[in-house]
Prior knowledge:
Elements: E1 6-10, H1 16-25, E2 31-35, H2 47-63, E3 68-71, H3 74-87, E4 92-93, H4 99-105, E5 110-115, H5 117-120, H6 123-133, E6 137-142, H7 146-151, H8 158-173, E7 178-182, H9 190-196, E8 202-204, H10 207-220, E9 234-238, H11 242-249, E10 255-257
Parallel strand pairs: 1-2, 1-3, 2-9, 3-4, 5-6, 5-7, 7-8, 9-10
The chain binds D-glutamic acid.
D-glutamic acid binds next to helix 3.
Amino acid sequence: MNIQPIGIFDSGVGGSSIWKEINGLLPNESTIYLADSTHAPYGSKGKQAIIDLSIKNTEYLLNQGAKLIVVACNTATTNAIEHLRAKYNVPFIGIEPAIKPAALKTKTKAIGILATKGTLSSELFSHTSDRFASDLHVIEQIGEGIVPLIENGNLHSFEMKNLLSNYLQPMIEANIDHLVLGCTHYPYLTPILSKMLPKSVKIIDSGEAVARQTKSILEQHSLLNNKTSIEVKHQFFTNGKPEVMQSLLSSNFDVSFLDF
Ligand code: DGL
């Protein structure tokens, strides 16, 4: 079991930002990544549709022998992870917007959260927000349109800058000092966002925390790959555009098209 891969899925290419963190912390682990780009964005779908797609992705990864599954998508985590945990026996790691660290560190008592509609409207999100940020000014912004632009390879487009400028304006006016990126596609926007935001605003995401949690759960279940003699293998599958995923990975890994 230990030499089996970690399975990772996202509605598309965004979870590759999480894959990078996991691979950085756990270089001995093989991985298999599934980008369900045909069905992106998940963020504008209803809860049941997100659950159904998450089940389909999970079953594919389990059929490939995944020993643990990382739901590298805030929208799928906040809407479906409870169902996945109840239905399957493997450990699941999810990702949620990093409200807690932002709430603990803010000095201006104002934080911004950029995430999908599906995440911001989920019960899990409102529970976490009530728990950690009820005394703060929280500016929630749906990142409408961002995921499709990234999925189509238009990360550095004029449309993207326009969208972001509109989304950031109310946050800048509210004097936020932390911007929480609540979608795994968004860390790829960090260089653009930091040019648009005042220097005092810290941009945070949950990628590193997910990698640490993955390591800790593998340890707890005695599932770490200790056989360094076995070649580590990374497989990437997308039902969208392999070249977009390839350019975000900026490495020599092959990304294969898979019709699922
Ligand atoms: N990467 C997904 C997330 O973290 C994007 C969701 C979507 O497809 O709308 O929420």
